[in-house]
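pinging the channel bc i need a second pair of eyes. not urgent but kinda urgent?? the chain im working w is below, pasted from the shared doc
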Amino acid sequence: MDKQINGLHHVTSIASSAQANSDFFTKTLGLRRVKKTVNFDSPDTYHLYYGDAAGTPGSVMTYFPFRGVGRGRPGTGEVGTTVFSVPEGSLGYWKERLGGHGVTGLAEDTLFGERRLRFDGPDGDGFALAEIAADARPGWTGSGVTPDEAVRGFRGATLRLRDGKATGELLEFMGYDRLATEGDVTRYAIAGGNGADTVDVEVLPGADRAQQGAGSVHHIAFSVPDRAAQLAVRQSLMDTGYQVTPVIDRDYFWAIYFRTPGGVLFEVATAEPGFDRDEAPDHLGEALKLPHQHERLRAQIEAYLDPIAD
C-alpha cells in the first residue's frame, strides 16, 4: 500500500450520559465540542465530537452516549488506552487539574521514553496524556486551559490483543514502521504523520475478550487526505483479502470500515469536507445538526434527546 495514511483521524467510544460526557471533555480536558449530531444508524442517540478549534483529523474524540447502557468489560480485541499529546512540562498542571475535577485512576508512568499521566474517563475509559516536546499543533484553550498546557490532539492509541503478530503486519502494510518493543508493548509509527502518529500493540495472551459498553472504544479511525487516497487504500486492503465496506458518507468525512485480525474495528476516514460544512467555524458544536435523511424527524428527535447544558 502506498503511504496514503498519515496518522489517526478520530477515536469513537460509547458513553452512558451525554451531559457527563460533554462536561468531561469540554470542562475538564478543555477540548472544543466541534459537532453535536446523532448516530446515523440510531438517531435517538447523540453523536458528539470533541477536538481542536476545527476538529482537525488527529484531534477528534467522538462518542455515542447510549442512554442507560451498562459499563463495558475491558479485555482484548479493543483499544485499551487513547493517548493525547500535551506540552512538555505540563503533566504537573494536568495532575492537579484532573484531581481537582474528581478524575480517578491518576497514575504516572513512562513508555518509550515519554512521560505520561494515565486517568479514567467518566465511564472508566482508559486515557493518558503524554508530554511530546516536538508537537507544534495548537491546542484548543477552553475552560481556562492555556496554550502552555492545552491538549494538542492525539499522540496515539494502544490496542490490547491476545496475539499481536497479524495486526502488526497489517499496521506495517498500512504504512506504519515497527519502532521498538518495551515489555508486552510494541510501538508502530507513521513517519512524517499528522501528530497522531503512533499505535501501540499490547499483547495479553491470557486475558479475556473485551465486552463493549460504556467506556469502550467502538472503533478507531485512520486519516487519509481525500477520497482518491481512501479508494486506493480500500482497493489495497481488498486485494489483500480484507472485507471492507463500501464508502459511506458521514457528512463531515467519508468512511470505510473493516475488522482486524485481533477483532478491533478499523475505519479509514477522509479529511474532507470537515466540520464547518454546515456550521460557521466560530459556532461549531452549538446547534443540533442532523443527517439529511433524519431531518424530517427533527421534532421527534429533539423531543427525545436529553438537552445538553453548555
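so Residues 8-304 form a domain with the 2,3-Dihydroxybiphenyl 1,2-Dioxygenase; domain 1 fold (CATH 3.10.180.10). and The radius of gyration is 18 Å. — does that match what u expected or am i reading it wrong
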